Structure formats: structure tokens, C-alpha cells
TrEMBL record, chain A:
Transmembrane segments: none
Annotated ranges, domain 2Fe-2S ferredoxin-type: 78-154
Organism: Rhodocytophaga aerolata
Keywords: Iron, Metal-binding, Oxidoreductase
InterPro entries associated with the record: 2Fe-2S-bd (IPR002888), 2Fe-2S-bd_dom_sf (IPR036884), 2Fe-2S_ferredoxin-like_sf (IPR036010), 2Fe-2S_ferredoxin-type (IPR001041), 2Fe2S_fd_BS (IPR006058), Aldehyde_Oxdr_Iron-Sulfur (IPR052914), Beta-grasp_dom_sf (IPR012675), TAT_signal (IPR006311)
Annotated Pfam families: Fer2, Fer2_2
Keyword Iron appears in the UniProt entry: yes
PANTHER family assigned to the protein according to its UniProt record, in alphabetical order: OXIDOREDUCTASE, IRON-SULPHUR BINDING SUBUNIT-RELATED-RELATED
Protein name: 2Fe-2S iron-sulfur cluster-binding protein
From TrEMBL, chain B:
Domain named FAD-binding PCMH-type: residues: 1-227
Protein name, UniProt field: Xanthine dehydrogenase family protein subunit M
One Pfam family of this chain: CO_deh_flav_C
Species annotation: Rhodocytophaga aerolata
Gene3D superfamilies linked to this entry: 3.30.465.10, CO dehydrogenase flavoprotein, C-terminal domain (3.30.390.50), Uridine Diphospho-n-acetylenolpyruvylglucosamine Reductase, domain 2 (3.30.43.10)
Amino acid sequence: MTEENQNEGLTEDEKALLSEILSEDVSDLSEFGESRRNFLKQLTMAGGGILAFELFGGQELLASPATQPFIESIENAVTLSFKVNGAKKSLSLDSRMTLLDTLRERLQLTGSKKGCDHGQCGACTVLVDGKRVLSCLTLAASCSNKSVTTIEGLAKDGELHPMQAAFLKHDGFQCGYCTPGQICSAVSLLSEAKDGEVSYVTANVQTSKGAVSLSEEEIRERMSGNICRCGAYPNIVDAIREVHTGKGVAQNWQFVDDNQASNTSDLPKNDNK
Amino acid sequence: MRPFIYTPTSTVSAATQKLKANPHAKYLAGGTNLLDLMKEDVEKPTELVDITRLVLTEVKAITTGVNKGGITIGALGKNTDTANHPLIRQNFPLLTQSILAGASAQIRNMASNGGNLNQRTRCPYFYETSMPCNKREPGSGCGALEGINRMHAIFGWSQACVAVHPSDMCVALAALDAVVKVQGADGKERSIPFTDYHRLPGDTPQKDNTLNPGELITSIEIPINNFANTSYYLKVRDRASYAFALISVAAGVELEGTRIKQAKIALGGVAHKPWRALEAEKFLIGKEATEANFKQAAELEMKSAKPLEHNEFKIELGKRAITRALMQAMTGGKA
Ligand SMILES: Cc1cc2nc3c(=O)[nH]c(=O)nc-3n(C[C@H](O)[C@H](O)[C@H](O)COP(=O)(O)OP(=O)(O)OC[C@H]3O[C@@H](n4cnc5c(N)ncnc54)[C@H](O)[C@@H]3O)c2cc1C
Ligand code: SF4
Ligand code: FES
Ligand code: FES
């Protein structure tokens, strides 16, 4: 296995973390005679070894029934080859598996969230061949040869995707559970608008030509498939407007400064502005 | 979810043969309705025949025959692509608006045109397997008839079932006098007028439509009309977006001078099938296109409505929605 292959699917942060966890022990181990496969299996079962498992091509181990640590047998198995965040994946799975469960349970990509599992919340939104879809209602088997992008695949070369950065700046979340879906959806929304796709609130679908400029009403309508139970909607709209227009939208919150943090009497009170 | 065999196919004849060979198999298109119902154990196919790779995705102008000038839409085209096709936006904006009024951007990117026609009711008793439902389990009774039936029918229902068809796209297709093209395992094509495609529940609510077992929808044809600039799809719902219709209205008004030559009106959220408002249409022929006339047409249409315990509000709502949709149609929805 080439070096490049080994690191497929890992972010820079994960790679750094991994080299810290594993240090020199790994190469030592294989020389000690303990089979690497066995070692990985133990590490995985111990719960802490997911990253290592990925590094050494965990999917290939999983795909060969003899070495599957937790799957005894697969009913109506289908073989799926597709791309996830640019990396080729090939695995054998139960025909019932949704794309969401495959990402989360088989590929350790837990960024995509399971909110309702019935198409009603948008938390599981990912991009398939560049289009936003609901991974909870997508059968994994139907993704053969397709290319999937999840929230984990949006950052490039250690830089957040502009939409991720805008969500941070505008505090476009509270608990964060809906956020991966919101961001994937928002990224797709911008390319749809650029491609001239109209919406139910577009004034005239007959005469609308070229890229659609997104008013707040347009953004809200186009994002309606992503529910936020915490109600972070105004900030989400601000974040999207900022990336869409390329112009800064004023941030409506600030961190406390050191002074405020150390001096509680500085905190705003009703009688003291 | 119950186990099933996954069978990808690449031709119409292979797909239809698969369903002939296994009567418990189902076609899988976008999966947005079928997978949901399988998770709920309402649909229990033993095999899914994946038809998403069939090349029935094209939208093209009809250049010969009776429907010349009209358009044909592939059954496996995605709702998003159909709504945004330049020919459809230009000549059938009513269809564009109706599709975009439904579901969410993600779902429309997945949903196919054929799947949209065959989506099943959202009646909560149909979804809840511990409740009686004649559509899910013929003979078990109807949970909604005496239950919470706020979302249910006011036209054409029976003691056996009071459910409504949930589609928005289909309401526009009914007003547009579309034709559904289907093909069975024998290779023969049938054409079904849209208003005959879905059915009223009668004693057999388990049958949503007139498709024969195993038949595949291949395309939908829409004849050309003279109301592209004077049409509108109005959807009234509990929240501004991403909710099924309480009532929806697809309206197209063909004018001759200031008078109405003919009007095409279909209602959603009121019956087991998209409901053509024939009474209102008849009244409007030859009348001036005024709000007063639209109101009177709406009154006439709603006369035969029969509400259930919780949905009497749909009658007044229906009258106002029809009037408003017709008013909006006069300005192409740009008011
Ligand atoms: C949360 C949510 C909200 C929604 N809101 C709306 C809404 O507001 N308005 C609205 O109109 N819709 C709404 N929908 C429904 C959505 O539009 C439908 O689920 C979708 O159109 C179904 O298409 P599909 O390709 O995914 O069908 P599938 O789920 O793949 O199939 C549905 C059925 O059709 C059959 N089928 C599919 N293609 C064919 C074919 N070519 N020939 C014969 N049979 C076929 C399948 O066997 C299955 O029985 C909503 C759905 C969800 C999940
Ligand atoms: S209304 Fe129809 S779908 Fe709903 S419970 Fe009654 S029979 Fe079932
Ligand atoms: S988890 Fe997929 S839409 Fe809610
Ligand atoms: S941030 Fe909590 S659900 Fe959206």
C-alpha cells in the first residue's frame, strides 16, 4: 500500500493526531511478529483505533469477510464502489443500508447527522455528484460509481470552506446538530443559484435569466429543507448572504473581552448600561 | 427494514420483466417515498428493481402528431431538472411552480417524475401500522374517518378511505390535461389521460391509480396551451415552505379579448386524486375575467364539498384559494 493510499480520507488534523497516537510503536510492532492485522483489530475493538483502522485501509479489511471484526454475515450483500470526498471506497454491504448509515457506520464519517431518518429535517444532507440530496433516503447500493461529498470533504488544504468560515463568523448554530446538513445544503444552494435555478418565490420563472440573485426570501425558501431546532435561522441566512454576495455582512455578536470576563460587575444589568 | 434483493437494471424491458417474475418486487426511483415507507414497514417489497439508470430522463418538444407543440417528459427525469428546463419554464410555468412548491430542494433533486405520480398518501393512519387503514391493510377499517382528519378529503371520499393525494406536481398536470405513457412486460404502450390516472377510493382504496401490476411509467406528455402567461399555482399550507398542502390550486385562464375562452382549474389536498374543478371551469366560459366572477365560480365548485369532522375550514379556504389563484393567474403570478 502506498503512503498516499494509507492517508486517504484523513484530514491534516487527523494525520497529526494519528502520528501522535501511534508514534514509533506501530512499525516496532510488526517487527515483533504480532500480525499487524490482529493488532489493528484489537485496537479497533478497544474503541480508540478508528483512525488507525482508516489509515491502514480499514475498508479493505472490512470488505473481506474473514477479517470483519464485528459483522458476522451480510444478508443480500451488494458490492459498492464509489468515491467519498475524493477517495475511492469499495465495500460489501447489506442491500438495506442507506447512504447515511454507510457513511456513519462503515466509513466512520460521522459528520452527516441522523435527525429524523425520514426526509423531514435535512440533517443528513450530502452532495452526490455535486447535487444536494438526503442521505437517509438514498440507498447506498444506488450510489455505485457516484461521487459523494460530506461535510468532512469541504475544507481544502487545511482551509475551511468559505461557507464553514461564514457559519463560524455569524454563529450560524447553537447545538450544531443540524449544521453539517445546513452547510452542505448552503454550498449547493449557491451553485444552484449561479446555474440559474429558480425557486417557488422567484418572481417570474419565464423571464428569469442567468444567475439568480438571492434575497433573504429566496435564501429562506431554498433552505427550507434544513430544519434547525435551535432556531439559528437569522444567523444562517447572514452567513449565506455573506458568501453569496462576497461582501461582509456585519456580525451581530462578540466574544466577551478579558476585562468583562474577569470583572463580573461589568456584565450588563438592567439599571446599568 | 425487511430484507430485499437489490436489482439494478438498464432497460425498460429488463425492468418490466423483473416485476413480472416477482409480483412482490417494486421499482426504485428516487426512493424518497418508497424507502420512507419501507422503514415504517408499510411497504414490504422482497426486491427493489433500481430504474434510476434507465435513459428515460429527457424533456423534449413534441414535433408530430396530435400533441404537436406540446412536450414530453421522461419518467426518470428529476423534479428539479424538469422544473428548470427552459422549455417548461417558458411554456408551462404552471408546472415549474407546482414542482417547486413541493418538498425541499434536496428531495426535488432526488425525486423522479414517475415517482411523484406514484407517491402514496401522507395520511398518518396509513403510516402507523398499529392503526386500522384500508389502504394499507384492506378490510381493517379507516382510522381517519372518525379520527383526526383535518388534512383529509372534502370531495369524492368513501366510507372506506378519506385520504388525499399529496402531490403538487400532479395538480398542475391535471390542469394541463397531461397524458401518462406506461409500458408493461408485454412491451405494449398505453396512454392514460391524467385525470383518469389516479382514482377515487371507492371500496378499493389500496389502489391509488389505474396502473396495472408491473407497468412502468415511461413518460408524461403535455399538450400546448394558450395560458402560459395567465396561469398560477397557489399552495396554502401550515408553514411557508416544506409542508404538504392544505389546499392548492393550479389555474390557467385562456382569454379572448377581456373574456375567458376557457379556464383550467385543478385542486390539491381535497381528494384521493387531483380534483378538476369542472363546475368552476364551466361557469367561467365566456365570462369577464373579474374577481366577482372568479368568486362565483369558486362558490359553485365548493357547493358539492362534503367536509369531515375536522376539515370544514377547507371549504371557505378553498373558495378563497380558487379566487386568489385565478386573480394571480391574470398577472402570471407577478402581482
Ligand atoms: C419530507 C417530505 C416532504 C415532501 N413534501 C412534498 C410536497 O410538499 N409536495 C409534493 O408533491 N411531494 C412532496 N414530497 C413527496 C415527494 O415529491 C415524493 O416522495 C417523490 O416525488 C417521489 O419520487 P421518487 O422518485 O423518490 O419515488 P420513489 O420513492 O422511488 O417511488 C415511489 C413509488 O413510485 C413507484 N415508481 C417510481 N417510478 C416509477 C415508474 N417510472 N413507473 C412505475 N412506478 C414507479 C415506486 O415503485 C414507488 O412505489 C415530500 C417527501 C418528503 C419525504
Ligand atoms: S383515510 Fe385512507 S389512508 Fe387514511 S386511514 Fe383511512 S383508509 Fe387509510
Ligand atoms: S435525517 Fe435525513 S432528513 Fe432527517
Ligand atoms: S443548531 Fe441546534 S438544531 Fe440547528
